[in-house]
Amino acid sequence: MTGFAAALYENLPFPVLVVDVEARVVSHNEAAARTFGWNRDGRLPAAAAVIDGANLARHASQGRENTHALSFRHENGSSFEASAHVIALPDEGTGVHYALLLRSLLSGGSHGEQILLGQRIAAALDTMTEGFAIFDPEERLVLFNRSYKERCGEAGAHVRVGATLESIVRGNIRSGMFPGIREGTAEAEALVRERLRDHRSPDSDGSVFPFGEDLWIRAESHIAETGDVVALRVDVSDLKRTEAALEEKRRDYLSLLQILPDMILRFDRGLTIRFANDKYAAHVGSTTDELIGRSLPDVACAPEQAAALIDIGGYTRDEPVRTMEICIDGKDGREMWMLWTAVAIFDDDGVSEVVSVGRDITETKRQQRQVEAQTSELRRKNEALDQFTATVSHDLKAPLRHLSMFAEMISEDLHRGEFDELPHYADHVRKSAARMRRIIDSLLEFSQIAYRIAVPKPVALSGVVRDALALLESHVEESGGTIDVQPMPEIMGDPELLKRLAQNLIGNALKYRRPGKAPVVRVYCRQRPAGIDFVVEDDGIGIDPQHVGRIFEVFQRLHRDETVYQGTGVGLALARRIVESHNGSIALDTSYGPGARFVVTFPQSIRSRGNERGRFG
Question: Is residue 441's pLDDT more than 60?
Answer without folding.
Answer: yes
